[in-house]
Design goal:
It comes from Oceanobacter antarcticus. By secondary structure, the chain is of the alpha/beta class. Helix content is 38%, strand content 16%. The chain has a 5-stranded mixed beta sheet with strand order 10-9-11-8-12. The longest helix has 19 residues. The protein is globular.
């Protein structure tokens, strides 16, 4: 009761009707599925195909949580949400978690009654232009008309950058990323700005993607990751460590193809992650094989990255910052022990 009162008071201070919703794990187990908020459609992150199947880096985080909690990565109910809808849907309990290319900022973490659990993709804001516009740098865009998605950090970053550089622009806002792409393609704006990963995803959806280019400048830090409600630490820990298991599996050299063997005859670290040694699962309120289920059914971070946005995908994005910390990137998991 004290926790609920404290959270309710916090919600009142913030002007929000947020209360603690402990027991998400029990709700998920009773429902038999994880309710996961995703984008309305963004290649490589969360997109539904013509058969109704969802795929993407963010989708795989949802699948990892389902594998950990229910033993089956397919037991996910996907809820498509616009950028403006996403936080309200999570706050209200409409979804159990949000995995929707969402930037972790202080304001979002400290004033919405939400907790970011980690980073599944390090990104940064960039700009896409038509090649026939004749520009090679964002600094050539003074006076440009810019297509932008409403309810995102992109709007604020754009205003900050142009103001700091003494430049002017006219913004045209849209509710979804597909609408921004359509606006750009129809010529309503000179430039489309978003996270660079989104720009590459949106470019392949153009009728003539070869006519568009992404400018070299990156003007912001955009650490993207899953989000849960405050007030349920047990669920927060489950989602946090489900993401960590994917990242740690790559570091330890465990893939979906080798998880079963590693659980039996691997190193002590591998066995500890996969549940054949230690009691990590019980500390999370899960079965001993929670992480084994994740890696076997979803894969490690390298597998998730490469099939969705990397070499095995149409986007062909290099690992860059998203490489493991010991291979030139900053992707890093806390120790699972």
């Amino acid at each position: 009761m004290l926790k609920q009162v404290t959270m309710a008071a916090t919600g009142l201070v913030l002007g929000l009707s947020i209360t603690a919703q402990a027991g998400t794990l029990e709700d998920v187990q009773k429902r038999g599925a994880v309710s996961c908020g995703v984008s309305t459609g963004l290649a490589g992150f969360s997109q539904k195909d013509e058969k109704g199947n969802w795929s993407g880096i963010d989708v795989d985080v949802c699948r990892a949580v389902a594998a950990a909690v229910l033993g089956d990565a397919s037991k996910v109910q996907y809820k498509p949400l616009t950028a403006k809808e996403r936080f309200t849907a999570l706050q209200s309990g409409e979804v159990d978690m949000l995995s929707r290319n969402t930037t972790w900022t202080l304001t979002r973490d400290a004033s919405l009654g939400l907790n970011f659990v980690g980073v599944n993709y390090y990104d940064g804001q960039g700009f896409m232009v038509s090649k026939n516009l004749g520009v090679s740098s964002v600094n050539d865009l003074d006076g440009a008309t810019v297509c932008i998605q409403a309810g995102t950090t992109t709007e604020l970053n754009l205003a900050d950058y142009f103001r700091a550089h003494g430049m002017e622009y006219t913004a045209i806002t849209f509710d979804t990323s597909d609408q921004t792409r359509a606006g750009f393609e129809s010529g309503r704006c000179d430039v489309l700005t978003s996270d660079q990963s989104q720009l590459y995803a949106l470019r392949i959806g153009l009728q003539k993607p070869e006519n568009a280019m992404v400018l070299p400048e990156v003007i912001s830090k955009e650490p993207l990751g899953p989000v849960v409600r405050q007030g349920d630490d047990a669920w927060f820990n489950i989602v946090k460590w489900s993401l960590a298991a994917i990242i740690e599996a790559e570091y330890l050299g465990i893939s979906s193809a080798t998880a079963a063997t590693a659980a039996k005859s691997g190193t002590p670290e591998q066995k500890r992650l996969l549940g054949s040694d230690g009691d990590a699962g019980s500390k999370l309120g899960l079965s001993a094989d929670w992480a084994n289920n994740i890696v076997s059914q979803v894969g490690n971070y390298s597998e998730v990255f490469e099939r969705n946005v990397g070499s095995g995908s149409p986007l062909k994005i290099a690992r860059g910052l998203n490489a493991q910390w010991n291979k030139g990137g900053i992707m890093y998991s806390n120790p699972i022990r």
